[in-house]
């Protein structure tokens, strides 16, 4: 079966208990894809080909299989570096360094998050910049900064 349209996010479905749910575990990188093949916890395989190129997949994206069945995407937790610069100077240094490495990031609440990378960890230690490594289930894929938006 090829699924072409996201129904809703599972968190936004009011009568979720009335559905039979199959869950497919996906990597956070898979959320950037418009075409994807998944295998569910029930052993079923489905193809996803989003017909609307503006549609995005996210943790909890639900597809209707029939009136009472849903396929829900669940993101596998990733090892993420969460960097907390102490001031604007450190923020500039980190942003410059990560930009030169062309790393996709998420910037939120004064913190920079990216996939675990030993080179980045080494640099944070060398420059005495606060960071921690966490297992995080990303709701959206990390992105490259797009200055055209």
From TrEMBL:
Species of origin reads Limosilactobacillus rudii
Q: Which Gene3D superfamilies match?
A: Urease metallochaperone UreE, N-terminal domain, UreE, C-terminal domain
Q: Is Cytoplasm set as a keyword in this record?
A: yes
Homology family: Belongs to the UreE family.
Keyword Secreted assigned to the entry: answer is no
Question: Mind telling me which GO cellular component terms the entry cites?
Answer: cytoplasm
Q: Which Pfam families match?
A: UreE_C, UreE_N
Which of UniProt's keywords are assigned here?
Answer: Chaperone, Cytoplasm, Nickel
Protein name, UniProt field: Urease accessory protein UreE
Question: What is the recorded function of this protein according to its Swiss-Prot or TrEMBL entry?
Answer: Involved in urease metallocenter assembly. Binds nickel. Probably functions as a nickel donor during metallocenter assembly.
Q: Example GO biological process term?
A: urea metabolic process
Q: Report domain UreE urease accessory N-terminal positions.
A: 6-71
